[in-house]
Design a protein that fits this description.
2 copies of one chain form a homodimer.
Chain A (H helix, E strand, L loop, with lengths): L2 H8 L2 H11 L3 E2 H5 L6 H14 L2 E6 L2 E6 L2 H31 L2
Chain lengths: ~100, ~100
């Protein structure tokens, strides 16, 4: 997944809260819906966006759908942020060196 | 900023690419627009979203607006991901322990 796709899925307060909830363990759709005063249909749609982006996987046992986090997106997004930050820190370092050279 | 606000700003391929570009050093609006075949007006709007979310700061020198990354969002988002991943790993650990206990 691209960073934009991963972030677009998290870029909604309800979905970010669902990922927070799932980080404490698997949950059913109705457990995910409960804190948000939303319909199950609305909760299913949000979960669908998280599934499509790779954050969540669904498993059905009987009539209950259990959702859990997938590990991959955490690594992907953390890696992207770390790499960008490293680039940027070294770019700042080079800028600092140039400014130092320009001083009398 | 909340994670949802930070992610909503990155949740667009053009804006994610602009942050990638800025991680290699400061750039003007026209430099940011160049790889995307977009108008300066469209580029300014994307930059405005990144500024509002805290990813980018703008500085004006004469007629040129220079954009650069701000460090804070990297720390915020990395911290959130690390904490969620830690929660989730320990939740998995607890689940594993429960499963082990249930085995004969």
């Amino acid at each position: 997944m691209t960073v934009a796709v991963l972030c677009a899925a998290l870029g909604d307060p309800t979905r970010a809260a669902m990922v927070e909830r799932l980080s404490r363990g698997p949950a059913s759709i109705s457990e995910l819906a409960a804190p948000h005063a939303m319909t199950l249909t609305a909760a299913r749609k949000h979960v669908g966006v998280l599934v499509d982006a790779g954050w969540v996987e669904r498993r059905k046992r009987g009539r209950v759908v259990t959702c859990r986090l997938r590990p991959e997106p955490f690594g992907e997004l953390e890696g992207w942020l770390t790499d960008r930050r490293a680039f940027w820190t070294s770019a700042l370092g080079r800028l600092g060196a140039v400014l130092d050279e320009e001083q009398p």
